[in-house]
Write a structure and sequence with these properties.
The chain contains six helices and eleven strands. The chain is of the alpha/beta class. A hairpin with a 5-residue loop joins β5 and β6. This is Bacterial bifunctional deaminase-reductase C-terminal domain-containing protein. One of its GO terms (molecular function) is 5-amino-6-(5-phosphoribosylamino)uracil reductase activity.
Length: 220
């Protein structure tokens, strides 16, 4: 059965999933890269993003590896794909990750501006969805073929799906830093009213990993 998951999304202690002033030089905003200290040294990250052997193991790597298991499709907001706003000026920009992105499955990018799909190395194809977040989810479910759909972010994209009760499980990594400003993940969201409960909490040196699940009996 296809589940809709957020996995490995990192926030600061004060609740921000990215810092302020995001641009091509600061894709996660000022200070935002510090959120992911728990992730970047892990064996899973080194293998999936750089194709390298080695990296750290333990709690952080366990959660990083879990985040990639049984994923058949991804959904991203446009900012997670690139810094360009408005209509696409050309076909030059193909994402932050080079020729072989770490997804290796179909990826559905929310945008107001149509663009032809982009086939990348390693099995990743970016599809650009102009019909809204529900259309993206319908297409991602179909593409996933019974596997899970992973909502990659950013924070505003996750909030859209949370408000509609469409996310079954969230793994949030809380990094021990303060950003002060930026993109808040849970702004205007009442997780308890939406039926979410914490089913797991594990701390490492660089993050506290929290897993939330939504009751199937909760009505929105």
């Amino acid at each position: 059965m296809t589940r809709v998951r957020v996995a490995g999304f990192t926030i600061s202690i004060d609740g921000y999933g990215a810092g302020p002033d995001q641009d091509i030089d600061n894709p996660l905003g000022i200070g935002g890269m510090d959120l992911h200290q728990w992730l970047v040294t892990t064996r899973t990250f080194q293998r999936n993003l750089f194709g390298k052997d080695g990296g750290t193991t333990g709690v952080d790597d366990d959660f990083a590896a879990r985040s990639f298991r049984n994923v058949g499709a991804w959904i991203l907001g446009r900012n997670m794909f690139g810094p360009i706003r408005g209509d696409w000026p050309d076909d030059h920009w193909k994402g932050w990750w080079g020729d072989n992105p770490p997804y290796h499955v179909p990826v559905f990018v929310l945008t107001h501006y149509a663009r032809a799909p982009i086939e990348m190395e390693g099995g990743t194809t970016f599809h650009f969805v102009t019909g809204g977040f529900r259309e993206a989810l319908d297409r991602a479910r179909e593409a996933a073929g019974g596997k899970d759909v992973r909502i990659g972010g950013g924070a505003s994209t996750i909030r859209q799906y949370l408000r509609e009760g469409l996310i079954d499980e969230l793994h949030i990594a809380i990094s021990p830093i303060l950003l002060g400003r930026g993109e808040p993940l849970f702004e205007g969201i009442d997780l308890r009213a939406l039926g979410y409960t914490c089913v797991e909490s594990v701390a490492s040196e660089k993050a506290t990993h929290v897993v939330l699940q939504r009751s199937s009996h909760t009505r929105i």
